Amino acid sequence: MNDEPTLRAGEKPSAYVSAVEEHTRMAPAVKEAGTSASSRTAVAELVSKGLASRWLGTGAAVAALALPLVSSSTYVIQIAVDALIFVMLAVGLNIVVGYCGLLDLGYAAFFAIGAYTSGLLSTRFEWPLIATLPVVVIAAIVGGLLIGGPTLRLRSDYLAIVTLGFGEIIRITANNLDFTGGPNGLYGIPDFGDFGLRADIALYWITAVVVIAAVLFSSRLGRGRIGRAWRFVREDEDAAEAMGIHTYRVKFAAYIAGAVFGGIAGVLFAAHQTAISPPSFNFLWSALILMAVVLGGMASTPGVVVGALVISLLPELLRGAENWRYLIFGLLLIVVMVFRPQGLLPARTGEPGRRGHRAQEGAS
Amino acid sequence: MTIIRRGTMAAAVMALGLTLAACGGSLTQDSSGKDDSDTIKLGMLTPLTGSSAAIGPHMKDGARLAVDEINAKGGIDGRKLSLTVEDEACDPKTAAAGAAKLVSAGVRISVGGYCSSATLPTLSIFEKAHIPMIIPAANSADLLAEQRRNVFLINGTGIQQAQAAATFIKAGSSKGVALIDDNTSYSTDITKRTGDELGLLGVKVADRQSVTAGESDYSGAVNAVLGSKADFVYWTGYYQEGGLLIKQLRAAGYKGRIMVADGSVDGKLIEIAGKSNAQGVFATMTQTPQTIPGGEAWVAKYKKKFGSEPGPYSTQAYDAVRVAAEAVRAAGSTDGQDVIEALEQIDGFEIFSGPLNFTIQHTLSVGGFDILVVKDDDFVLEK
User: Fold this and answer.
1) Contact across the interface for A187 and B32, Cβ inside 8 Å
2) Which domains does chain A carry?
């Protein structure tokens, strides 16, 4: 993992790693407080490990890639790309909220930064869309530094308020600048090229590959050393700090990683929509992405993916209900949260201990 | 573990490649090219949810009235029209999904589009599917900037409204004009263009103000207008702020004339300004059945069918369907290219805004803007 430089400066990795493992390995034991707990968790772990991590993931990836072969109608492809982009946003926010426990209410800001940066470069300066990607990543990182720098020293509620403000600032700025096209936004954004396929299907496959890679990357990130540091910070920031984790830097890493995910999702969104405007990046979006994370199960990659699919596809499937669709949507969400408060596919309580060791060995 | 996964993935990718090679047909071409012979499918995107949800039913009913009328007369060449309505929610993403749904449903001509920013992403979707768009309401110049051949606007544009306003102001021999907008793209576009037109006509623009929508105290703008000695105020925002502005201008002793743009043409303006303050306020507005001679019959027909008064853009939606039907009749087919050519060649087809001819940019050659004036509780045509 690429977290070495972040963590090495001034810490002793071995100390906190063992501390984190100690801490988390005790958690399930304490919770179950029982005799047969170990065997039960072992079975549960085996099932969820086998299902959730490997076969489910591979199956979902293959299914995603194969979709255009099953149905290639314009509508199916359109909403599938929307859903995939939403998945990418959700796994990105999951790094911030799920892994690290930083409540970010302005995540759409990074999405907007990505979409607007690539949109501006490709329409005003006629760059090919793919060439805008590095600039988008840099812009997202700069955005993350600007807002994360001063605010990550804050905690919980304060951070939520500041990020909420940041999200609105980006949107209102885009709304008021002539350069960004004002309220009507940018239009005529090119796609990546059609590679001899129908243009929307080519974009679908590009999106699918990027999103699958992002999901894999974020889930690996969560399992690695920095992932455990994030979880420790989430569970108890003071204890983490006492154990030698530079909490500020670790939180920063989560925030920047989330920003980059959001930025890249923005590029895909710009290519997909061909026209972007400020209303696409309002608070509702930030809230919906957060909802996907919570609905699916915080810090659980399969859960978050499922949550994102539900949140983005349900309103489309309810299109027939016209005025009622958001009411039904809201009611369904309430029902889910009443009966599954931990999310649809919650994260396992324990740490994947064995695998953690192996990852650590591989890294060093 | 990694090896297993890599193996699985490689196998999956290979399988995918083989399938792709075997049945690549539908992936490389658009499959929506067929047409069923007995109905002509029209599609409409209009806000049914969200901030502009009130507009949707008016547009839908207007379009439905036209569809039913044409079908009652036997349709076009024996083919009936059908109308599919999808929600655009004034949201670009929802609109794009809705457009894709219409394309998949086999719609031949689009007769919808209300919010300009939500209509923009639908242009390329309809264009790729070779579907002509007759847009009844959205009228931003941005819709035309890419010069897509399938896009036609049948609502008057900002520049046409500005020309109507400037001509009227010039005729009234004003000594100085104050232009006030509310900082939205629609509103600033009209003030900017009106200022340009007035410049060409040699009328002095004494003052320009931008106010913030949603406030309740406009004394800053009012004082600036009084200070500039303008004797004509043109407000280009919406009725809520417009009503307050008129009230506060009159209260501060402003004696000159006031005119508002089409976003303020609503009974609420008179209510908010106060009936006595609003008397004699002018407005630039596209023709509606309430203001054109002989329009009462249409309104009565609409009311009888839907049990409610026609609202904003009912007439434009009605006209969009009629124009679409006319183009199909003239073209003798529903092929996108043929219909686009037929639309470009339409000559003098009667719609509410006057005889229809499309300009080279695919906008109305005659904007159809009239000057209305407030009389008692209503806007009536200025004679």
Assistant:
1) no
2) 54-344 (1.10.3470)
